[in-house]
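Lesson 9: reading folded outputs for more than one chain in a single document. The general rule is that every protein is listed as its sequence immediately followed by its structure tokens, and records are never interleaved. Here is the first one.
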Amino acid sequence: MGLRYRDVRQSSGIGVLDKAVGVLRAAADEPMGLSELCEATGLPRATAHRLAVGLEVHGLLARGSDGRWRPGPTLAELAGGHADPLLEAASAVLPRLRDITGESVQLYRRDGMHRVCIATAEPAAGLRDTVPVGTRLPMTAGSGAKVLAAWADPATQRAVLGAASFTDRVLVDVRRRGWAQSVAERESGVSSVSAPVRDAQGQVVAAVSVSGPVDRIGRRPGVRWAADLLAAAEALQHRL
């Protein structure tokens, strides 16, 4: 690993802060497991694990399906989104989708076995389905999870389906029609519909979602909002 991070970084005089920054910098250079973090930082196993988990809770680090820590979504959020083209695109597209539907809009990115809310647009009034930016949700329920799982690699799909509320056949249908819907899967009383967002190479990099109370948007939200959602997904891709 070379020099330890604690040996080459200036000390602030606040021990726990310096150690946490050392862990963050180490994982920012390359994804690292616990043993690699210990070697890179010189920290005891228990200390390195406690700091990495704490940074993960705050979204500064994120752990992938390989068990390695890497930079988390909060870093992009704190940077104001300017370093992330997807967030810049979302700031222009999501509010328009919210105005068209009158419902809550979210953008999710997959992080291992979780999906992370990286952008939102909420209606000014009325009953909302609020998901704060940085929220980590499992990949096992909800329309956003179905979209991200449908275009994930085979190993991730197998891992998700082992505990999911949906089946492989559902993912086949999602890929065929290009969107997914859910009713009270992740949260009682909430419906949602989601579509994939692709980058310039056509790879699915996120899921854009519209969600709201079942009593208001119904049990077939895809029939109502799929066309607008697909247009928003295309607009995001165009901006990317």
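And here is the second record, again sequence then tokens.
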Amino acid sequence: MAAAWWNLANYRKPAPPIRSTKKKLITRDDWEKRLNDVKIRKEDTDRLVMNFLVTEGYAEAAEKFKMESGTEPEIDLATIKDRMAVNKAVQSGNVEDAIEMVNDLNPEILDTNPQLFFHLQQQRLIELIRNGKVEEALEFAQEELAPMGEENQSFLEDLEKTVALLAFEDVSKCPAGALLDVSQRLKTASEVNAAILTSQNHEKDPKLPSLLKMLIWVQDQLDEKVYYPRITNLSTAALENPAV
């Protein structure tokens, strides 16, 4: 019995088998052969380029690419200039003009998206505060934004943060001071841009950046298993020899 207890007390589970951690090496010639075996139609790459140009608002480039490649855009290219005009107005702080232009494009965009409309009105309030129009800002907040805040708690919280800017002579000391940064204009402009694209039955984000992110993710997964020629410079897509 004592011997059995001693054997049990000193029992050690057998160590798991040692697995080889050596990664496989794929040569440059073999890797390029594999890449060449993947057939991608030119029409697909052309549509990918057109999608990027349209979504990002490069109207002239999209028109030229259409002529050179014969690729038809998914939306009327004339609407790109209108969309970019809205974008420019928001980024310049001319939010009231931007709202009018959005309504000219499609009144349903703001009618069916109360959050977007609130954010545009909030941006108008921010611009009044930025320009030192205190009384006008308070009046605008009370008459236009307060009723919206009563209907939606999240709107009320954003309104309170914005109005808090008026309580600080030095807005850099205000917890909500970032609202006066250019990044806030860009955020609002991006939201409007996405809403216009959605109203035109177009993706709000270009496909190309998503594919590049997927490429980076796939390479990270491969790095754990094999040595292979990888792409480190996405702008040139040049293959680098595997670092063994």
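What the second record shows: Strands lie at 24-25, 226-227, 230-231, 239-240.
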